[in-house]
Every structure is written in C-alpha cells, then in structure tokens.
Amino acid sequence: MNDRPDWISAPAGALRGEIIVPGDKSVTHRALMLGAIAEGATRIEGFLESADTRATENILRDMGVSVEAPNAGGRVVHGAGLRGLRAPNGELDCGNSGTAMRLLAGLLAGQSFDSVLFGDASLSVRPMRRVIEPLAAMGAAIDAQAGDCAPLRIRGGKVLRGIDCHSPVASAQVKSAVLLAGLYAEGTTQVIEPQPTRDHTERMLAAFGWPVGFERGIARLTGGHVLRATGIVVPADFSSAAFFVVAATLVPGSELCLRGVGVNPRRTGLLHVLRTMGADIVEENRRESGGERIADLIVRSASLRGIEVAVEHVADMIDEFPILFVAAACAQGTTMVRGAAELRVKESDRIAVMAAGLRTLGIAVEEAPDGAVIEGGVLRGGEVDAGGDHRCAMAFAVAGAVAKAPVRIRDCANVATSFPGFSELANGCGMQIVPG
Questions:
Q1: Domains of the chain
Q2: What are the tens digits of pLDDT across the range 384-403?
Q3: Using CA atoms, how far apart are residues 34 and 123, in angstroms rounded to an integer?
Q4: Is residue 319 annotated as part of the catalytic site, yes or no?
Q5: Least C-beta-crowded within 10 Å: which of 12, 101, 312, 334?
C-alpha cells in the first residue's frame, strides 16, 4: 500500500485501542548527527525508520561514520569525534529532508573538506538563504543555486567565529544549524529568535555533555568542548501522533490511547489549541528521557468550537497546521489562524493545499498570506490533491474518516518520508484507508 501514490479514505466507526506511533523525526536526525561527532558509541532506541532519517544516516556513513542497525528501530553510532568526519566521495543526498539539509549545512561549515548537499525536486526549491546568511556571518563559505536554493556547495577549511544571531524567522532548523556550526567556532554563539521554537538540539547537546544555555527564544554555547556518547531513547513523534489525536477527537464514540508520545513544550502547541477548542485529551504516565518529556495521551471524542488561534502557539505547532485545518473544518463556528507564513515554504504551500482541498470537500476557507479563516461545516466526499506533501496527505485521510462520503487523496507517496506504515496503523484502530 505504501508504494501507491493515491489513497481513498472512507468514513470510519469509533476509533479504539492503544497505538504507538513511530519515533520523533526531529530527535532521530539530531541523535544521528551528534552521535556521529561524539566520542564513543551512541545507542539509539526508537529510531524512526523513514526515508528522511535514512538520508541523514547514509550521509554520515558517506563521511566515514560507522552506524550499526542491530534491529528495526535501533542504531549504534560509532562517533568519529568533533574533527573526525572524512571527505565524502561524492555529493550528499538529503532526499526530501529540509531538516537534514539545513542542520548538515551548519555541521559541514566547520569541516576541513568541501562538500555538496542536494535533494529531490521539492527540497531543491525550498529557501536556504535563512541558513546561508547566518553561517556566512560566522565565516562559512556556502554557494547555492539561483534563488538561494540547493544544491549547497560548502567550502571547508574556514575559521568560524561565534556570533549573536538575531534570526528574522522563527525556525528551529536555522537555530540548530547555527548552534552546530558554533561547536566549531571561536568564542560564543548565541541565537535570539522572534518567537521560541523547538529546543531539541539544545536538550540533546546537554545530554551529550556540551555546555549549552537556553531559555524561551534564546540559545547560546561556546566552542572548545567535547561531545560524549550517550544513550538516546527517541520518544514517539508528536507530529505523527497529532493525526490520531484529531481523528479520535472528531470521530464520534472514539477513545484512543497513544503510548510514549514526546510532549516537549516547544512541540505541543496543538494540544493547547485543541483543548481551547473543547478537545478531551488527558496526559498520563509523565516521564523524561534524554532531556525530552514523554507521556501517554488518552483522547476521547468531543465537539469542537472555532477559535482565534493565539500567535504565541504558532511556532510550537508549525508541522501540525494541516491537521488543525481539518479540526477547524469540523468545529462549530469560525477558526482564524495568523502568523503562520512559514507554512508557505514547507514541503508544499500547505495553506494553499489544505485550503483547496477543504473547499473541494465543502468547507469555506479564506486564505491569508500568513494563515486562513476556516468556517466549520460538514465535510462531504470528493477528490483532493496532497501536493506531494506527507502531512497534507495524512490530514486529508483524517478528513475522510469523518466525512459523509469517501475522500480520494492524490499524491500520497511521500508519507513514507515521515510516517512509514501510517495507513496500516490507522486501519488497525478503525480508519478505512485503501489504495486509490
């Protein structure tokens, strides 16, 4: 099923049971990268087996890092040390992963050798100036194609200097790229953000023993230290869990338990928004691993009401907006989203893709440059296009579960980049997704 480009999602009965969604993609990428430049062997449990994370894994192998895979979801990364990476024999393929490209740009800026990062057609039109400019201010030499797009050609052997980076965009990828370059820089590197973003990099650097200071919207570190291998348990990905949280909320009679979900405060803006809309979501068995907060989520169906989404939550839920649009489409009243211009430059223009699809399904949506106004209503069946965007495809699959008739979703092949086995897991708890 995962090889088929189209899906049909039919109306579902009550969703029931306990599920474990795949490991957190953001944490998996970072565990691989920091493990590669640490001293010793880093053991990773809960590794996300996806195209995106394997792209990072293969790139590190191309630079001489030994990565063992003793079992599915497990990796042992034999660190080469901060200065131990080797020049690759060819260009480095990031596939569809913006996280891989942007974070590796920071990591590779401090190496002694030249490198080239490239990606697929979708990644090759995503903006890279936001990473290139602060890295250049640190002394890096990075050349890009017209429009500051990939491939990125990074010249090695440059002396990097710590900077105060006032990032114009709220982007955890930009922050992380600068911090990774800061490991190789002279002096202190500090990133100040317009809004707080995910702090996975800061938390994991601390877990690997690198002194790092961080608070809301600010992160800083100095060069000259050593990363020491550690054990990393990757929590279940909140962004993946979000589709099931919303599905169980919307499908009447549902009660679903999602085990071991990462509930890092910089990732869970959607929980705040859904609860404000009236969702019934309970966190149980709270715990911590590798600096990351984890909990089991118990979700029961509930009626939602439209709200104006507080801008303060936007950066903490940027990957969850496609599924929020579906929740808003099923809510009573109007939902307004602003401050989410970043959605225009993700794997697709997510605002445009979701707005077009929801209109096809009978929902009134008014687009804005940085968001949308969604009038809640009744989803009817129809045919929508996911635009090659994995999160839009899964969001429309949830829409099909609560619609009055089946929804045919075109261009779903990229779901494997972030959530392999999504349709099988969804069908196991009561959804009805079949190849189209």
A1: 7-23+235-435 (3.65.10.10), 25-223 (3.65.10.10)
A2: 999 989 999 999 999 999 99
A3: 23
A4: yes
A5: 312
